[in-house]
Amino acid sequence: MKGIINFLDETTINKIAAGEVIERPASVIKELVENSIDAKSDSIVIEIKNGGKQYIRITDNGNGISTDDLDIAFLRHTTSKIINSDDLSNIHTLGFRGEALSSITAVSQVEVITKTLEANYGMQLNVTGGKIIDKTDVGCPKGTTFIVRNLFFNVPVRKKFLKSDTTESSYVSEIIFKLALSYPRISFKYIRDGKLIFKTSGKGDLLSCIYSLYGKSYIQSLINVAYNDDIKIHGYISKPELSRGNRKHQFFYVNGRCIQSDILSKAVQDAYKTLITINNFPIVFLFIEVEPSSIDVNIHPSKSEIRFDDDNHIYNILKKVIKDTLFKKDLIHTNETKTTSDKKYDKKIEYLDLISNIKPNNYIKSSFKKDYVKDNSKESKYKSEQITIYNQDNNKLTSKVNNPVSYIKKEPMIIEKETQIQIDKPIEPDTVIESEDTKHNFPELRYICTLFSTYIIAADKITEELYMIDQHAAHERVMYEKIYNQHEKNEILKQELITPITIDMTNHELLTINENKSILDKLGFEIEDFGNNSILLRSVPALLNIKGLKKFFIEILDHLKDISKKPQDYRLKYIMKLACTTAVKGGDNLKEIEIESLFKQLQMLENPYTCPHGRPTIVKLSKHELEKKFKRIQ
Q: Which of 42, 33, 55 lies closest to 192, judged by CA?
């Protein structure tokens, strides 16, 4: 019986290999430009026509290809970058497999003009379908020019799947932008269909390169990053005010190679968590240098992905470097900045006291009294609440405050031990972040007025610069950090209800509760089975408003299954939701003493600039913009 396994001919083998390396015109350009970079060029010109499908020209002033190497340079697995397998663990060049040139010439018509510094003249070589057609002497400057025509002319199936000229051009542009950013010491010139798209100076200044590619608006919102230890990191990251709806403007370079990395992306996103709005992503240009032996670059045909030996190490370092960099800068938004995301955040929320005297390490028991107190500023009645606080020494303190529904409308606090003592002055704000190292310079604010019962106008006590504060966003950040710190220290404050709340459950919900009682307890909920598919809520998080409590608990229950998949992310979402629920609302009338207390609490925060959802808490009203509005300047 005749066998069915055949030996493939060289032409078929080359076409298959080409399909693995060369997907589209952008792949050709990536391979050829990387070769130009490895040839120590300091000037590279890229020109395409029809998206690169019909014409590509790459010209560099690098080392060139010697006459002896030219004949074998287009064979498979011929390379000047490595000699044997030992070199794979110590790669310092962009290309090393020796497949690029053979793959390109296998599926296109290629013309090469090249000259080394030592040669008296250059060489011109024409290769079609992987075969050398002719080779002649030519006069030319040092360097190499590749002209690639009619890509996939002999592989119609591949050619059929190429996209439109516009789409293929966009892929090419993306590749060239990445390469230009990677090597600011090289002057890149990009021409598309006869039009100059950009040119970089090649002077080695990354910021200048970014300016050439992306313009002035990027430069104004970038922060320099520098870290030098066992891992070296440098580059630029954007202020939270500058973000995009996808990760296409995040560039990571490891040892000079632009790569994709889930672990690096996660480190960046986690560092910006609560600084930018949901579904938006910061802009980063980050260069990381590690020992070549600590990464594997040979896990993807195009070498666009790498594997780190220690993911956790690189994640922790990058996250910390970015956070430290951000919080050393003034992140206050200005009214001149055009942000990329303007999504409205308008959830209905309840609120708590800005100047609560509840401290960590206290356990709260509460009971509702049926007496009422009157708010002098508004003709309405609010329930009063008796809260019993136990400190670490088990000493009992009792405070009489308003019901959380009207917590902001506070009468003078009464503290009880054996007898009640009247306190005439308001309680000072809590220290929300217990850190000796405050990394920001939040202004010391003087209250001026409030607009629409939502936006507080204030001035810097020293510079007299004007600011506008969103009272909900600001208080939400205060509550977020207060609750977050409680969870970090495992010191969750609970409020025991004198009248437990009954909630009817489905069988599935009861099962979820029984399976997650320990988790719910850590979140601040004490639950008791009440029979007939019902439960009793005996204790709830101390800061939680009783109004809307059932809805809040059901929403937490609905998402409880997510905690097993991403417990840390779920916990943050829970804290954000609780902070949002307990913060003051836009439209609430705050007293001046409460506003001054809010200012002091903001100064104590690690991040006073955004709410947990990434919206700005404070915006600077610059003199320049005001003068533009009044036509004093143009």
A: 55
Question: Residue 301 has what pLDDT?
Answer: 52
> For residue 97, is it within any domain?
yes
Average pLDDT over residues 606-628: 88
CA distances (Å), origin 267, targets 315, 384, 502: 5, 46, 42
42-to-3, 79, 202, 428 alpha-carbon distances in Å? 55, 21, 7, 62
Distances (CA, A) of 528 to 38, 55, 521, 534, 541: 69, 74, 11, 9, 16
Is 148 a member of any domain?
yes
Residue 319 near residue 272 (C-beta atoms within 8 A): no
- Cα–Cα distance for residue pair 309/304, rounded to 1 Å: 17
What's the count of helices (H) and strands (E) in the chain, helices before strands? 17, 30
* Lowest-confidence pick of 363-377, 433-447, 515-529: 363-377
Lowest-confidence pick of 100-104, 411-415, 596-600:
411-415
Domain end residue (candidates: 172, 199, 226):
199
69 shares a domain with 34: yes
In a domain, 459, yes or no: no
What range defines the domain where residue 584 resides? Answer: 472-618
Closest by CA position to 11, among listed 83, 76, 88, 57:
76
- By the 8 A CB rule, do 381 and 374 touch? yes
Neighbouring residues of 514: CB distance < 8 A, sequence distance ≥ 6:
none
C-alpha closest to that of 240 among 624, 625, 623, 619:
619
For residue 128, the cross-strand partners are 109, 131
Q: What is the dihedral of CA 368, 369, 375, 376, to 10 degrees?
A: -160
3-state class (DSSP) for residue 401: strand
Whether 285 is covered by a domain: the verdict is yes
Q: Are residues 420 and 485 in the same domain?
A: no
Helix (H) or strand (E) holding 28: helix 25-38
Which are the contacts of 118, defined by CB distance < 8 A and separation ≥ 6? none
* 614, 276 Cβ separation under 8 angstroms: yes
The answer to whether the beta carbons of residues 289 and 230 sit under 8 Å apart is no
Residue reference for tokens 């009640």? 420
Q: Which two tokens stand for residue 290?
A: 């590690």
